Amino acid sequence: MLGDEEWTTIDATLIHWFYLTISRDLFHAVVTDGDDALAVWTKLNGLFTDNQLQRGVFLQQEFFGSHQLDSSIDDYYMRLKKLADELRDLGKTISDDLLLTALTAGLNEEFGNAASNLTLIPEPTFPKVVAYLSLEERRMKMAKTRATHIALTVGTSSGGPPPPSSQALAAPRFSPPAASYGQYPPPAGYF
């Protein structure tokens, strides 16, 4: 079968597919001249499965240490979901309850009230909680926008400084400097 032209074409096609689907640096690090598709697949598979323990440790640390910080709810839950999926690929089971725990533990302070309201959701699931938090995030953004708008409106309509009076716009009265009187003060009643 080594000399079979059809098999050589299929082998070259598979190697080309590996080349197009993984990073070029990784491909060049793994592949050597004369490798067939099986050898390339074996090397790539070994590269990703030989370090499962270390990957699992790092992914668990990242998963349980995730915090929302300044990211949106959508970005935060997608990061958690991606990490959970990667852990599942390594054989680590991430339950829906564990996802919910990690999600609520990492929420920023703005979601303090929303996090306490999660206990009111009957039979909470990860998708239900994410939907609730997304709506809460929209509500908080609208409240901030409204508060900013009201502050600007109040500041420009009635809360701003009074307009300058016509007397303030008139030319200032002249008063001679103190040094023009010499060393002696002006006599009483001079002004």
Please supply descriptive tags for the structure shown above.
191 residues, mainly alpha, 2 domains, 9 helices
Could you characterize the architecture of this molecule?
This protein is mainly alpha-helical and 191 residues long. The chain folds into 2 domains: 5-49, no CATH class; 52-152. The chain contains 9 helices and no strands. The chain has helices at residues 5-21, 24-30, 37-49, 52-64, 73-89, 96-105, 112-117, 126-157, 166-169. Helix 1 runs parallel beside helix 3 (37-49) and helix 4 runs antiparallel to helix 5. The radius of gyration is 36 Å and the shape is elongated.
Taking the sheet with the most strands, its summary is:
none
Radius of gyration: 36 Å
Look at the helices and sheets and give the structural class.
mainly alpha
Give the % helix: 55-70%
**In total, how many beta strands?**
0
Brief account:
The chain has 191 residues and is mainly α.
Give the SSE map.
Blueprint: H1 5-21, H2 24-30, H3 37-49, H4 52-64, H5 73-89, H6 96-105, H7 112-117, H8 126-157, H9 166-169
Helix pairs in contact: 1-3, 4-5
